[in-house]
Design a protein that fits this description.
The protein has 249 residues and is an alpha+beta fold. It has 6 helices and 10 strands, in the order ααααβαβαββββββββ. The chain has an 8-stranded antiparallel beta barrel with strand order 3-4-5-6-7-8-9-10.
């Protein structure tokens, strides 16, 4: 890992985000401007990587955090278990939330879900505390589940019966709603979906622990939160996608 490689990786991510492919008219004149910022960030990343290797992930995040925020106020940290299962969900996982959590949650088994871009993958010592994923929701959920220890106790849920569901599109509007009825075994079976317009769809479901997957008119992938609630994401081949919540009738 060297400064030039990290800077190059960062530049490519910026151009990709802007939609400036190779040969774009603005790439050449804007490269010096972006390169200066990328070099500064690359040096910071290299120092962070050295601190992770020498001082540990928690201490390294404490040291780098002041470069991004003036202060962090923690409330309720005493309720976080020091070992055993723990899931921390942040509002802004792509910004400084992950650093703030890592700096104030002293757990050696802490892992943060990140996008597997080349820049991040070059941080070898930091990699022990990362779970690489993509921007695609289904892939994220698959990667997180695959990272869980095989010894994690699996809770068996029987979802057979009728559920009221609401599908929400990415723009925040309700996409569909109705009743979904599951018939079969706890691990697999068929479902009948009847929306508010009395249009019927059929498909199959599969349950693995708390993970649920539906294949039919749409592909649904969710988590059985408890015996009465299921939440997750859905998508259609046409490109529509969003989130859903289902509650047992």
């Amino acid at each position: 890992m060297d400064e030039r490689e990290l800077t190059s990786n960062l530049l490519e991510e910026i151009f990709k985000a802007l939609g400036w492919e190779e040969g774009h008219l603005l790439r050449a004149p804007m490269t010096p401007f972006f390169a200066a910022v990328c070099r500064r960030f690359a040096r910071l990343a290299m120092r962070f990587e050295q601190d992770v290797a020498g001082q540990g992930f928690c201490e390294a995040t404490r040291r780098i955090l002041p470069h991004f925020v003036h202060s962090v106020h923690i409330c309720g940290a005493e309720y976080a278990p020091t070992d055993g299962p723990l899931l921390v969900v942040s509002n802004h996982p792509g910004t400084v939330d992950g650093l703030a959590i890592a700096a104030h949650l002293p757990r050696p088994d802490l892992k943060i879900v990140v996008s597997g871009v080349p820049f991040i993958r070059r941080l070898r010592s930091t990699a022990n505390h990362l779970i690489y994923s993509s921007l695609e929701p289904f892939e994220r959920m698959r990667v997180v589940r695959a990272s869980m220890p095989e010894s994690t106790p699996q809770v068996v849920f029987d979802i057979c019966g009728a559920w009221e569901y609401t599908m929400t599109a990415n723009n925040g509007n309700t996409y569909d709603a109705g009743i979904m009825t599951f018939e079969g075994e706890p691990a697999k079976g068929k479902y009948l979906q009847v929306n508010i317009y009395q249009v019927e769809y059929q498909g199959e479901y599969a349950v693995n622990g708390q993970a649920l997957k539906l294949t039919g008119q749409e592909t649904w992938q969710g988590t059985i939160e408890n015996v009465n609630t299921i939440t997750g994401v859905w998508c259609r081949e046409a490109g529509a996608n969003g989130t859903f919540v289902a509650r047992r009738k």
